[in-house]
Amino acid sequence: MRADLARLADMDETAWRVGVLRPGAENTDWVGSGVEPDWPAARAAAVAALDELVRVEARRQEYRFEVGPVVGYAMPGVDEDGRLDSEDLAGVLPVTLDR
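Predicted structure:
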């Protein structure tokens, strides 16, 4: 987690951010972030932002996220109609976080 984002969150809050690594880019474009009161709220906000980002970008590429101490990426698949399938994005983050 970036230090400046982590500083925004106190001990009981959880910071999150989502971004995309576009083809040909060397760096992630972090397009959404926030601080929520707890892990479930931060997870929900990050999943919603990630889902929206996939829908806006509308292309198969690497999407990245940081929620509290959890860092990862997702590459949505394509459904049988050729559309991006963002249905399982919530599955990339654990439901609970044991600290």
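Summary: The mean pLDDT is 85.
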